[in-house]
Amino acid sequence: MAHLVLNIFVLSLTVALFINVTAVSVELKTNVTDRLQELHEIQEDLKIKSKQFETMMESEVGKLKEKVEFLETKIQEQDNLLKNCQVATSDAIGSLRNVEENNLKKTVLDPKTCLEARTADPSLESGMYFIDPDGQGRGDDPIYVYCNMTTGSTSILHDSEDSIAVSHCFEPGCYTREIKYNATLRQMTMLSELSNVCHQSIQVDCYDAAFEFNGVPYAWWNDRNGDPRYFWSGVNNNSSDRYHTCQCGLDGSCKEKSLSCNCDSDLAIELSDVGILLEKDLLPVTKLNFGRTIAPTSINRHTLGRFECNGKVVLNGMPTSCQDLWRIGYILSGIYSIKGSSNKVETVYCDFTKLPGDEELQTWIGYADVKSEPVQFTVARKSSFSTLNTAISFDQETLNTGNALNTSTGVFAAPRNGTYFFAFSSFAESQYSTFSVDLQLNDVTIANCVTSYALFYCNVPITLKLSRGDRVQVSLQQGSTNNAIFTGWLLAEDIFQ
Ligand SMILES: *[C@@H]1O[C@H](CO)[C@@H](O)[C@H](O)[C@H]1NC(C)=O
Ligand SMILES: *[C@@H]1O[C@H](CO)[C@@H](O)[C@H](O)[C@H]1NC(C)=O
Ligand SMILES: *[C@@H]1O[C@H](CO)[C@@H](O)[C@H](O)[C@H]1NC(C)=O
Ligand SMILES: *[C@@H]1O[C@H](CO)[C@@H](O)[C@H](O)[C@H]1NC(C)=O
Ligand SMILES: *[C@@H]1O[C@H](CO)[C@@H](O)[C@H](O)[C@H]1NC(C)=O
Ligand SMILES: *[C@@H]1O[C@H](CO)[C@@H](O)[C@H](O)[C@H]1NC(C)=O
Ligand SMILES: *[C@@H]1O[C@H](CO)[C@@H](O)[C@H](O)[C@H]1NC(C)=O
């Protein structure tokens, strides 16, 4: 029975187990089928997706191909553009270089004088150059001149450099030749302003054609102002308007010793006067005038050299005018300090749009208060002082800039020429005694003060023009004081001594 029970138990256990296992396998089976189904579905899905991807990729690749083609054409275009650009740029650089070169040439070509050009570029060769004495970009146009780069000299060409025959006529100056320069008078004036020396040579060959005869002048030249001049060499160092001479007159070597020109001679022989006009403030020669050539045998020929200037104007010391400032190269209008005609610094306005000779170039503004060193003092005496005929000394020093006052001696010594102001103030120590002081300049009394009653102040204010080393002091004459104050300062200094 027990066995059966056991069997039944085992059987039921087995059945149970079987049922269980079957259930599991069924479950498993369903799971696997499910899975398979799922996988299949995924596979299908993937297939669709990959198909989609494929078509998408195909279209993308197509697009990319298009893009690449587009880019290739673009690159080609850029390449062409670049090539064109390179050509254009090299052209542009070329023309830029030309512009630059022209500008360079311009800066070299537009100096004020040939000397300036040579200074800027010592390698320049002698030849024709453009210069602009009155300044680039202002005044008259640049002028075309001959530059001797060895000497740095500037020559202005004109139409009368050859030997020219004077026509036959009798009256003084009946023959006139106007000299035509290849520059305006203004430019030539500015050139001479900037130059140290200017000259013009002149040769006159004559035969029975006197410059001057029996005191009558038949020949002269006109200066740049149009005024007649009768000297044919050197400088205008005679106050007479009719100053007449030639080089032989200056040398004492004229054919006729009593005359001052060879061509003043009435002798029927071939003569000539050669001279160099050196008066730069009168040059250039603007006209040549001759007369007394009426005789058919009379010969008069003139040869006028170029107007030539050299060197750089030298200022003697400090600039004294806007003109001086212009000469040394100032071109910006403004307020400047100059050495005044007094011995003070003056302030002027320079309008450099105007040129030397123009009144508006300089406007006077006023004196500039300039002191080489300040001089100011205030000193006092609080202790009794009673030594008569002696400078009152001081025991308190409030201010003593420049140490011009020696407090221990009471003597002021002017350190510089100039105008000084002084004020001395004091009163008597004892109430009823007379009190008197003298203010002395180099021991000579020039002001004084007397009080007879202590309540009155003794005041000595004074302004004095002093020379360097002059001594000023206040000397006690009567009574005594224990209360004095002395002050003074340099009002205006003679700055250019
Ligand atoms: C069958 O799947 C279900 C749910 O997906 C899970 O709980 C069960 O354990 C699975 N059976 C087998 C035998 O893997
Ligand atoms: C005169 O100057 C002009 C420029 O101002 C120039 O072109 C011309 O060649 C010059 N003439 C002579 C003879 O030098
Ligand atoms: C330059 O001037 C000097 C001195 O006057 C002269 O000797 C020389 O021949 C001139 N040179 C030229 C190139 O004009
Ligand atoms: C004129 O100038 C010369 C030299 O330049 C000089 O020797 C002469 O003394 C001067 N004459 C007068 C009158 O000043
Ligand atoms: C100045 O010139 C005049 C005219 O030529 C002459 O008579 C006079 O002697 C000259 N004076 C001097 C100081 O040279
Ligand atoms: C003042 O004068 C006295 C006498 O001449 C001199 O000894 C002293 O050095 C002077 N003092 C000054 C500051 O110059
Ligand atoms: C100062 O002034 C005097 C006379 O006024 C003068 O002789 C002297 O040359 C001027 N200059 C100097 C530095 O003293």
UniProtKB/TrEMBL annotation:
Keywords: Coiled coil, Collagen, Secreted, Signal
Annotated GO CC locations: collagen trimer; extracellular space
Signal peptide: 1-23
Record has ATP-binding as a keyword: no
Keyword Transmembrane helix attributed: no
Chief localization: secreted
UniProt domain C1q: residue ranges: 370-497
SMART domains in alphabetical order: C1Q
Protein name: C1q domain-containing protein
Organism: Daphnia magna
